[in-house]
Each structure stands twice: as C-alpha cells, then as structure tokens.
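User: Can you recover a sequence for this backbone? Please restate the input before giving your answer.

Assistant: Of course. Working from this structure:
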C-alpha cells in the first residue's frame, strides 16, 4: 500500500515561526477560519484556546500542531492540498504570529487523481486522533 497523501503541509519558514511561537506560548493549533483560496490566513492559537467540535474537521498535523477547519469550508477545499506558509505583513486577526510582523497564509494545489486514491483520513473536530495514535 502506498503512503497516505497528506492534506496539509508546512513550509520551513512557517516551521521556524511555529518554533518561535511554541517557545513563547507552548503547544499550538491552527484553524482555517474563512477564506476559499490561496492567500487566506489560518489562525494560530495556543492548543485548546479555540474550541473545536463536530462542526469542524481535523486535517492533520503540521510541525506538531493540529490543523482544523469548519466542515462546511472543507467542502470547498477537500480536493486541495493546503500548505501553510508565512509572509511579512500584519494580518487582521487574533492569530498569535501577528505581533511578530508576519502572518500565516495558505498556498494550495489540487490533488492528482493518484494522490486522491491514497488520501489521509479526516476526522470530526471532537473525535480526532491524539499524537500517539497517528
């Protein structure tokens, strides 16, 4: 069996920003709260600060951080691989990276037919696997 196709990835630049934020705030999580295309901004929170539930979807982990989005938004993105990146500039949100003068953003591409045959599963936000289970 082939390796599962991840639904969400992260760039090295975003990983470096996550490391800075993790050192200051502890464990982190992401929620893609709106936006339907490239350049939309996922929100970064301390783990557990944003309450997720059955109306959210867990897409996976990036650099040790759970990544969620609303299930209605997932309908738009389900055929798309998301990559979390970072860019200079101030976003208009409560995301933890804002004081650093950067913002996280999404880059996306459609999955190939072959990749779609081996998709990583998604889970309801209230029933996602813990790190030891993945």
């Amino acid at each position: 069996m082939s390796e599962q196709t991840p639904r969400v990835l992260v760039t090295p630049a975003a990983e470096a920003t996550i490391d800075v934020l993790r050192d200051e705030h502890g464990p982190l999580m992401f929620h893609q709260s709106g936006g339907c295309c490239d350049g939309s901004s996922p929100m970064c929170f301390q783990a557990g600060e944003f309450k997720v539930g059955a109306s959210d979807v867990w897409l996976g982990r990036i650099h040790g951080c759970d990544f969620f989005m609303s299930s209605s938004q997932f309908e738009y993105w389900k055929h798309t691989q998301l990559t979390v990146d970072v860019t200079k500039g101030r976003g208009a949100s409560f995301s933890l990276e804002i004081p650093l003068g950067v913002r996280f953003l999404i880059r996306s591409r459609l999955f190939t037919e072959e990749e779609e045959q081996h998709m990583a599963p998604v889970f309801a936000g209230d029933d996602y696997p813990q790190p030891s289970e993945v």
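That completes the design. The chain has three helices and eight strands.
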